[in-house]
Amino acid sequence: MEKLYSDEELLMISGIQHYYYCKRQWFLIHVEQLWEDNIYTVRGDVLHEKVDNPFILESRKDRFISRSVPIVSYSLGFYGVSDAVEFMVDSEGYYIESKKNYFKVIPVEYKSGKPKKDNCDAVQLCTQAMCLEEMLDIKINHGFLYYGKTRHRQRIELDLTLREEVLELSKAMHQIINNDRIIQPDYCKKCERCSLKNLCIPKTKTHYKSVKNYIKAKLNDKEDLYA
Ligand code: SF4
User: Fold this and answer.
1) 3-state DSSP assignment of residue 65
2) Domain limits of the chain?
3) 200 Cα nearest atom in ligand 1
4) For 101, phi and psi rounded to 5 degrees?
5) Domain 7-226 adopts which CATH fold?
6) Integer CA distances (angstroms), 70 to 12, 19, 154, 192, 199, in order
7) What's the angle, vertex CA 106, arms to CA 105 and CA 108, rounded to 5?
8) pLDDT below 70 — which residues of the chain?
9) What pLDDT is stored for residue 225 in this prediction?
10) Which end of the chain is less enclosed by CB atoms within 10 A, N or C?
11) What is the DSSP string of 173-205?
C-alpha cells in the first residue's frame, strides 16, 4: 500500500461518525477541538467503557478476542482504536507466532443505539478493517457491528462499494483540512439532538469564520461592558 499521509496528517476514525452526522460537528470536534457531552454521547461512553479495556483478552478453543486494538492506515490517513478484533482459527489466515497458529481476523465495533438509516457504522467498521489489512498485510472479508439497544450483532460484508465510500470520505475529510475550509452551521432537525448546539449556535445569522473567532468576539463584548 502506498503511504500517502504522514503522522501529522492522520485523522481519527471516530470522526467518521461525526462527519456523517454533520460536517460542522466533525469540524468543531476534530479541527476546533471543542466537545460537550449530552445524554447520547454519555450513553455511548458507558458502553465503550465496558469494551475499552486493553487488558481483556478472551480466549476460547478456536478463537480469541483482543480489545481496544490501536490501528492506523497511512494510505487512508486514519488512526484510532478498534473496539475488538476476533481471531478465529483458519488455516488460510494470518499467522500469529505466540499462538503457533493461523487466524482469520474479524473487526467488531460496538454501538450503544440501534442500526442507523445511513451507512456510517458500516463505513467506520470498513475503515478499521482496511487499517488492519494494511498493518497485517491481509484481506478481511467481513466484520460485525454490535448494537447495545437491540443486543444484536450484524454481519457486514466489506465489499468494493463500501471500500470506495471509505476512500471518498478520506479524500473529502483531508481536503477540508488541507484547504483550511471552515464548515458553517446549517440548522436542521439534527441540531436539537446535537451535543455541540450551544457551541455551534446554528441559528445565528452571523457566522464567524471560526469558533475561536466567535469566542474572541464574545469575550470582547464582555470587556466592552466593563470598560
Ligand atoms: S448544532 Fe447542528 S449544525 Fe451545529 S454541529 Fe450540531 S448538528 Fe451540526
Assistant:
1) strand
2) 7-226
3) 4
4) -155, 170
5) Lambda Exonuclease; Chain A (3.90.320)
6) 11, 21, 23, 33, 30
7) 145
8) 35-58, 205-227
9) 41
10) C
11) HHHHHHTTPPPPP---GGGGG-TTHHHH-TT-S
C-alpha cell belonging to residue 37: 457531552
Note if the pTM is more than 0.70: yes
Asked whether 24 lines ligand 1 (CB < 6 A), one says: yes
Q: Which residues contact 136 (CB under 8 A, 6 or more apart)?
A: 94, 105
Q: In whole angstroms, what is the distance from residue 67 CA to residue 81 CA?
A: 9
Distance CA 27, CA 12 (A): 12
C-alpha cell at 57: 483478552
Any ligand 1 atom below 6 A from CB of 29: no
Element at 114 (helix H, strand E): none
Q: Which pLDDT tens digit goes with each residue over 18-75?
A: 999 999 999 998 888 776 655 566 555 655 665 555 445 667 779 999 998 999 999 9
